[in-house]
Amino acid sequence: MKVLVGVKFNTRTIAILGMLIALNVVISIFFHIPIPMTHGYINLCDAGIFIAALIFGWRGGVIVGGASGLLLDLLLGYPQYMFFSLLVHGLEGGIAGYLGASKSHGRQIAAIITAVVVMVVGYFLSDSLLYTMATGLVGVPTNLVQAVVGGILAFPIVAGIRPIVKRHLNF
């Protein structure tokens, strides 16, 4: 059993991460807005990624981010983005978790801001590669709104549930 940022990756933690992936996918499917100009959509995926990252560290962020992004694209009919979402959202979660897990509120906010920039740049590059640079530029504001809203939603949720999670997972 390895310990990283105070979190033991045991069977219970892995099961909770799996449930977070499922919850994130269901909520994001329910609350998604297609954006025809970018061939993509806005959703609440980033909130779940940030919650997992700030509580479970970089590993939890990578796992929930990558799996949630990939599954959302598969289930919502955007298979061209699956690989990119696996990488971009996985990196987003990894950075947020590495920089912000078990840190002060100021460090967590900085971690979320850094992860938001990484996600926006990642999808700019993805859209530019899949379509055109103009498509990538059109996607920047929508991806920025999606990620900022995710961060705003995640921050108070993490502050509220962190003590409960710590008590039940013994970290």
Automatic annotation (TrEMBL):
Pfam families tied to this protein: ECF-ribofla_trS
Keywords noted in UniProt: Membrane, Transmembrane, Transmembrane helix
Membrane-crossing residue ranges in chain numbering: 14-35, 47-72, 78-101, 108-125, 145-165
GO CC entries: membrane
Protein name (Swiss-Prot/TrEMBL): Substrate-specific component PdxU2 of predicted pyridoxin-related ECF transporter
Source species: Lactiplantibacillus plantarum WJL
